[in-house]
Amino acid sequence: VCAYGVHPWSAHRVRRDGWLADLRQRLEADPCAIVGEIGLDKAWVPPDTALHDWEAQCRVFDTQLDLATEMGRPVSLHCVRCTGFMHDKFMRAETLPKRIYIHSYTGSSAMVRSFSRMKRFGDSFYFGFSTFVNARNKKTPEVIAACPAGRILLESDLEDPSSREQDLILMAEMIAGARGWSLDETLHRTWENANSFYSNE
Fold first, then answer.
1. Buried (b) or exposed (e) across 162-197, using 16+ Cβ within 10 A?
2. Of 101, 174, 108, residue with least CA distance to 141
3. Are residues 151 and 125 in contact, defined by beta-carbon separation less than 8 angstroms?
4. Exposure pattern of 116-153 as b/e (b: 16+ CB <10 Å)?
């Protein structure tokens, strides 16, 4: 499955007109593609400007979120140090994309429950976990245990595929321990959850 979108780390570079038309064209050409990775990052300072451009991030994110909603596409969401802000933003929304995958989720277990119980949109949220981001956090098992079983996703969050399989197994083992599942059950459940998220139905 392909994903197309402007990452928040690159939002400050979006200057020219027509970028949204280009994104729409790519999505129209690939009916199975999702929108992503898009989102917000309060920690990121672009090295080429040394300036944190929150306004640009919000503008580019909102535009892409609207496009995903309009086109009925799932979204892969980047959310760093702004989980509460993102939650409140979604709470106020009139419409949202049909499925939103918060990848390498770093929020609290209480916030998982708040997302999952959100009026109108609670069933839209999926929560991804990766060894690269989540394994070092002692609270990760508690957070995984708070997630709805059908909304947990397994991911690597790696650009280099050489250690991808090993990292996926390590994260699957952590999920299994947190949920009281066997490794085989964890792999089966997360596979089914991924199929549900990426489905274009």
1. eeeeebbeebbebbbebbebeeeebbebbeebbeeb
2. 174
3. yes
4. bebeebeebbbbbbbbbbbeeeeebbebbebbbeebbb
Cis before 37? omega within 30? yes
- Measure the CA–CA gap between 69 and 13, rounded to whole angstroms: 24
Distance CA 39, CA 78 (A): 5
**3-state secondary structure (DSSP) of residue 42:** coil
pTM: 0.96
Residue 12: C-alpha distances to residues 35, 52, 162, 177, 189 (Å): 18, 9, 31, 41, 38
Q: What is the strand order of the sheet 75-80 is part of?
A: 3-4, 34-41, 75-80, 100-102, 125-130, 152-155
pLDDT tens digits along 113-156:
999 999 999 999 999 999 999 999 999 999 999 999 999 999 99
In angstroms, the CA 122 to CA 116 distance is 4
The radius of gyration of the chain from alpha carbons, rounded to an integer in Å, stands at: 17
- Are the C-beta atoms of 56 and 14 separated by less than 8 Å? yes
Q: Which residue reads 């085989």 in tokens? A: 184
Report helix, strand or coil for 108.
coil
